[in-house]
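Deliverable D5.2: sample structural annotation.
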Amino acid sequence: MLKQLTVSDGSSTKPKSNVRISGVGGFLFAVIFALAIGGVGILDMNGVAESITIPFLIIMILLGVYILLAIQIASQWEKAVVLRFGRFRNLKGPGLFWLIPIADIVVNWIDHRVNVTPFSAEKTLTKDTVPVDVDAVLFWLVWDAQKAALEVADYKVAISWAAQTALREIIGQMTLADILVGRAKMDADLQIIIDERTTPWGITVQSVEIRDVVIPPDLEDAMSRQAQAERERQARVILGESEQQIASSFAQASEAYKNNPTALHLRAMNMLFEGLKQKGALVIVPSSAVDTMNLGSMSGLVSLGFGQLNKGSEKKEE
């Protein structure tokens, strides 16, 4: 396979001027230009020769251009990196400052506010060879404008790539389960790794936050079924433990009734009475219980009582 080779003449490494046209400089340039035109008109009216008026006009225009380029204004959150004849001069701003045109150039305007850089790692294999897509957000700021401008060509692009490679490195060292449940630890590890790489550039990382972890759909379905099966298993375990507790309670109750037949008899009568209170209820009592607790005679008495009540009600109706 043929590879295309590109040859650079090194022009991209030369500092490029980022001089801005400030509102103050533009206003003063307009004033000087107006004064130059008006002065030329006055000189012509007084019959001054062109050998004087033309140099006057040129000088005034050059003065206006000088003021236009020399007066610069940096915002409160900015620092201007100034080079003089290609060498670092100083940092300017915030506020109003002066440059020497041609000798001084502003190579960069550094923003000292907190910046936000989203980054991601797609189809990255975890330690247990599961491909995942991870999206994250990086919060960072420049604490040394000189290093950010002179130590790296484009610090914004550099920090984005550093964050992405660090994320891939972290994913390769963790299993899928650790990634899903250990986002806080993953955020802390990423912050440490990225901050170590960006500190020489005058950049500090404030925090890293994992936004989303996307796994393959088939694996997601399998994990969902596994979680459902785990919940069912836990439900059955809880049901078994409840049955054990109930059996233990019955065992303790049987010990109380074992040596007290009267209490057992009264409990049986109470249960039978509660069942008969329900209208239309059918109570089935084992024959062994009837014989043991002498419930047969009691049942007969109850039936006889109900029969007498029924006859009395029939006579009242007649």
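Annotation notes: The longest strand covers residues 131-142. The chain has four domains: 14-110, 115-215, 217-253, 260-296.
The annotation will be released with the project's public dataset once the embargo ends.
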